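Supplementary notes for students who missed Thursday's class. We covered one full example, reproduced here. Read the sequence, then the structure, then the short commentary at the end.
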Amino acid sequence: MGRTSMTEPRRRRTADQAVAEILTAAEALLTEGGVAAVQVRAVAARVGITDAAVNYHVGTREQLLLALLRHGGKQIRAGIRSCAADLAAGDCDLDVVVDALGDLYEGGYAELLYALRKAGWRDRGTGLMADLVDVLHSRRPEPRPDIDDTRLAVAALNQSLLADALLGGSSRRATGLASASGGREQRQWWVGALRCSLGIEN
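Structure (token representation):
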């Protein structure tokens, strides 16, 4: 009688399916343990493939991190586009947009971006926030200033959310703020500041 294999048959995946599962696993590891947790071996174990398969589909660990960042960028762009459309239609307020962006950065993408920039990576893309800029600028009262004024306001918001995700409450504690809900209060402050700066209501 022949021997029966006790291992489960390896599931066949297309290349696109494999990459999608690898990035999903890497994203989960990023959220759970930060950039240090995103290792080829850990990703492979979570997906149920070999380290070599991860290398084959996405390359080295550095290339994996870059692919993960691009994956996050697509999520940010899609999220901003959706929120901007809702904002334009009056279906959501500015605080929903600020929370969505802040939550994504706090989910590990701010740390990932910082780590890659320290390693020498530079983003060549532009316009990630363009949809949001366009909607906010269209809602400014006449006569509107140059659109660069709106871009600067959104850039300041983006920088603040990135920094807050990296530094946590340390920057607020330095000013004497000790509230555990300071991050939420900081976001609400930014919503008010944007509304005041841009002259919009929502």
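Commentary. Residues 13-59 form one domain. The CA atoms of residues 88 and 120 lie 37 Å apart. If anything here is unclear, bring it to office hours.
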